[in-house]
Each structure stands twice: as C-alpha cells, then as structure tokens.
Amino acid sequence: MNTGFVGIGSMGGMLVRALLRSGALAPQEIWLANRSPAKIDAIAADFPGIHIAGAKQIAASCDLILLCVSAADASGVLAQMDGELDSDQLLVTTAAAIPLSSLEDRVPCRVAKLIPSITQEIGAGIALVMYGSRLSPQDRNLLDNLLRHISKPVEISESVARPAIGLTSGGPALLAYLLQSMADEAVRSNAELSPELARELVQETAGATMRLINEANMSPEEIMRRVAVHGGMTALALEILSQHVPQAWRKVFQATSERETKTRESLAL
Q1: E strands within 62-140?
Q2: Per CATH, which fold does 171-260 belong to?
Q3: Which of 112, 106, 24 is nearest to 66 (CA)?
Q4: pLDDT of 1 over the 90 cut
Q5: Alpha helices in the chain (DSSP H)
Q6: Architecture in CATH of 3-156
Q7: Are 162 and 257 in contact (CB under 8 A)?
Q8: CATH 3.40.50.720 domain residues, the chain
Q9: This prediction's pTM
Q10: pLDDT for 40 beyond 90
Q11: Is 183 helix (H, G, I), strand (E, B) or coil?
C-alpha cells in the first residue's frame, strides 16, 4: 500500500519514523512531501528507499494520504492536489480544527482525522481517530491495524475532540509541566535541595506511580487515600491543591475550546 505523508513537521515526522521503526510500513511504501527538504533528507538517510515527491505526485500515487499540516496550510496543499484525488483514496488529516464535513465537501476521497501524541515515539499512548461519513469498515480496519503498531487507537466523535485532545495529544506537555513545576517549587522552598535531585525524585516517583496504576491496578483515588493519612502533610497538600488546581484546569479547557472555535470559524478550505 502506497502511503503518502504531506508535511514532515513535529508530528508528521514522528509518525513516519514510528511507523517505520515498528515495521508497520516499509520504506518502499512511503512517499514524503515537505516544504523543507532537509527534514525529508534526514528521514531518507535513516530509511533508504523512501520516495521523495511533491503533494501533487503523492495525490496521484498513494492509496492512503496523511495530511500532516496545520489547518491554516491545508487549503494551499489541497489546491496542489486538485485533479489527482479520487474516491478510492483515504485522506487523513491531523489538523484538529478542520471539520470532517468541510473536508468531505472539499475532496472526493473518504476522509478521517487522526490526532497523534508524542508518546508514539516509543510506540505507546493514545491516538485519537475520527471517521468521516464515507468511510467503509475496511477503511476503519486499515487505520486501526496501522495505528496499533505504535499506539492504542481510540475512536471519538468530533463533539468531544477538544477535551480529549487535551488529555492525550496535549497531555504529555501538561503533565511534564506539572512535574517540572512541582520540582521547581520544591527547590525554591529549600535552597539546599538541588534542581537535579528534585527532578530525579519527581520523575522516578511519577514513573513508579504510573506503575501502581497500570500494574497494581490502583486507582488514583486509592493512591491518594493510602498516602494522605488524615491530619498528615500530604493530606494538607491535597487540600491546598484542591482549592486551586480544578479552577486552573477549568480555565485551560475553556480557553483552548474557545480558541479552536475561532480557528474553525476563520478556516476556509
């Protein structure tokens, strides 16, 4: 199956490398197009046999096309593909703000939306998938089988996409910020604690906590109950966090939802 990737930025490049490393796709099956030749050359050097092409050639040559460009750039790229796309192809966008209905109105292909996560670098984590109205069961199986090599694919509706994306694709950055800020504030509270030691402590603890959840089947509620003894320091810490963290998350999800709505309203394919 010829598979084309248009846009080899952070997520597009990650997807290509992850699928190649996992053996889900062979280099000879992959076609790459990107504005910056250097990014394609770097992948081609690691995986000889990859086809280097333009967006128009990919549209004419590939059965599955992953459009890994921003919503703002999608219109220009699709214009390059005009006249080459047909109803036998599957076009997958990674741009969350592009409505599937708008994409279906713009192209003759079957369409879907994929929101990957940086965790696919290690073949793990959630890949969110949304399907257009023209997809067949075979199309769904194809995407599902491909993505299972590098992720746990989860189908969602577009109506819940924004908070789901915050929890998955954006989640690693948000969790990393929380861990880093926790370590930073611990250092500020005691000048004798080094940043290096604080980071080591919080990273090892975070990893071990996830093992408790995944391997010992402990729920977050159970972990908090067992650690936060009544009247203890951890219970006090949780009480303080409960007064501020939920409000911060509420602002995060509200603000990102509002921005995506504005982006979608200004979008023209």
Answers
A1: 64-67, 90-93, 110-115, 126-131
A2: ProC C-terminal domain-like fold (1.10.3730)
A3: 112
A4: no
A5: 10-22, 37-46, 55-61, 71-81, 100-106, 137-147, 161-167, 171-189, 195-214, 220-227, 233-242, 245-266
A6: 3-Layer(aba) Sandwich (3.40)
A7: yes
A8: 3-156
A9: 0.94
A10: yes
A11: helix
